[in-house]
Design goal:
The complex is a heterodimer. Chain A is mainly β. Helices cover about 0% and strands about 50% of the residues of chain A. In chain B, the strands form 2 sheets. In chain B, strands 2, 4, 5, 9, 10 and 11 form a 6-stranded mixed sheet that branches. Chain B has a 5-stranded antiparallel sheet with strand order 1-3-8-7-6, with no helix packed on it. The radius of gyration of chain B is 13 Å and the shape is globular. Classes of the chains: A mainly beta, B mainly beta.
């Protein structure tokens, strides 16, 4: 059963803590993306990766970091430098056809 | 910088009505335009993708049009059903394939 999985579904972070959100895909897609969604708003691009071992900053990369060591995996770390991290985080992947396929999302809340 | 606007922000219609959702973008140099559906607390589902060289795409009761020169797209939903209730997001892709999203139209179809 192909698709994109994100874990955990809900995540709580204390002030000053780093947390890592998982994103895995078995669609054999080269490109992967991380977006942030705030209530009542569209998605904003955090980071994207077109190929293994390479990634680029999106519009709101400050306070976030990523790695792309495997084609299937693109984890996102929310660092303590991100001052307002409470949001819904969505991961996506795409192939040459350009349609982006999204995971179910992770809701991060700062306590 | 590309900006995407969706009007209206919310729409409520009786079941069976045909409806149109609007999307406009400021930079006509796009690679493609995509329409997505998002149910509350869930990820995004791709509905239609229109390449920049195309004028429209159809899938079942959905028809999306693209007028690149005027920076506009419409999503037409025929014979609306309560199951169509969701938020509909428009996104445009630039040359690097990143998506810029609108804020969405929240649709409610009343039985």
């Amino acid at each position: 059963d192909g698709g994109i999985t994100q874990s955990p579904k809900y995540l709580f972070r204390k002030e000053g803590q780093n947390v890592t959100l998982s994103c895995e895909q078995n669609l054999n897609h080269d490109a992967m993306y991380w977006y942030r969604q705030d209530p009542g708003q569209g998605l904003r691009l955090i980071y994207y990766s077109q190929i293994v071992n390479d990634f680029q900053k999106g519009d709101i990369a400050e306070g976030y970091s990523v790695s792309r060591e495997k084609k299937e995996s693109f984890p996102l770390t929310v660092t303590s430098a991100q001052k307002n991290p409470t949001a819904f985080y969505l991961c996506a992947s795409s192939s040459a056809t350009d349609t982006q396929y999204f995971g179910p999302g992770t809701r991060l809340t700062v306590l | 910088k590309q900006e995407v606007t969706q009007i209206p922000a919310a729409l409520s219609v009786p079941e069976g009505e045909n409806l149109v959702l609007n999307c406009s973008f400021t930079d006509s140099a796009i690679y493609n335009l995509q329409w997505f559906r998002q149910d509350p607390g869930k990820g995004l589902t791709s509905l239609l993708l229109i390449q920049s060289s195309q004028r429209e795409q159809t899938s079942g009761r959905l028809n999306a049009s693209l007028d690149k020169s005027s920076g506009r797209s419409t999503l037409y939903i025929a014979a609306s059903q309560p199951g169509d209730s969701a938020t509909y997001l428009c996104a445009v892709s630039g040359s690097a394939r990143q998506l810029t999203f609108g804020s969405g139209t929240q649709l409610t179809v009343l039985p």
